[in-house]
Amino acid sequence: MAGIYIHIPFCKQRCSYCDFHFSTSYQSYRSKLIDTICEELVFRKDELNGEVINSVYFGGGTPSLLNSDELKSIQSTISANYLISSSPEITLEANPDDMSVSNLKDWRNNGINRLSVGIQSFRDNDLKWMNRAHTADHAENCVKDAQQFGFNAISVDLIYGLPSMDLSEWNNQIEKAISLNIQHISAYCLTVEQKTQLHKLVEKGEVVPGNEDHQSEQFLHLLQVLKEKGFEQYEISNFCIPGFEAVHNSSYWKGEKYIGIGPSAHSFDGTNRRWNISNNALYMKLFKEESKWYEKEELTGKDRFNELLLTGLRTKYGVNLSALQSNHSLTKDFIQKIENYANDGWMQKIEGTLLLTDEGKLRADYIASELFI
Known about the structure:
CATH topology of the largest domain: TIM Barrel
Order of helices and strands: EHEHEHEHHEHEHHEEHEEEHEHEHHEEHH
CATH superfamily of the largest domain: Aldolase class I
């Protein structure tokens, strides 16, 4: 099984914290870009060697800005050129302010069966601070509207660790999301990324980043509350009612194949990683000229070893030591560090698999980097 990721780099406005590739001035070349995405899909149809496509993910940017014809064009191109499973997961990232009755109807008619809703917060003050285009009322009502149209696989994004958010308010955010009877929650700690508006405000001293101790407290509280409510943490930032794991995103963490289409999209074929240029105009120009619109890297045994650690430790599946050894031998230093992390209460070794504890999950990236070859 394999997946297809489509990157739609359109946005109404720039969120203060976002460093993804997007444009807010795209109308003049909108149609041309959609045409290029369809052309790239056709051009690369043989790369997966006929593997069945089990998931399609429209990400961005803001894919919910696609109109019905644009979405239909991309979907029909995929159907005509790829072997699709009988029940694929087809996800659309959507902003609450785009989730009108007409759009919800179009999405259902175009085969979308899972929504990933960028709510981020149920508080108007937070949304204004983040420069989001929707309101708290939008955030709540859009989910209810989607449910009325038959969407029964809905994920919402939430952000914790905001400078103005205490534990009580974070608990309110979690409880509000749970009350909507959704199947999936993705919760991310606010980070200050380079070249974002938030980074500029921090540099000017106009914003003080969230306290790390408070962020850790909010993360552990999230784990506790969602576990009590029947949600399973299957990846550090992702929680679901059992049976509603994101098929597409899980393929990334499990090292499965996927093809990425559109500017800045990444791909993995089991051996190589490649990524398209993060520039809309150049992406269209170079593709049209049949020039190289992407970069490619063949992974070495050390690369695969490190990637297995980085992704596997973030998941409930953990990292299998035999799989690691098939890429690179385990050094004495590596084995000693594992023992040290186990003694610190950060890691467990169960039947040949490394798993992080809740305390370890707070340090996942640090632990992985320390274990890298």
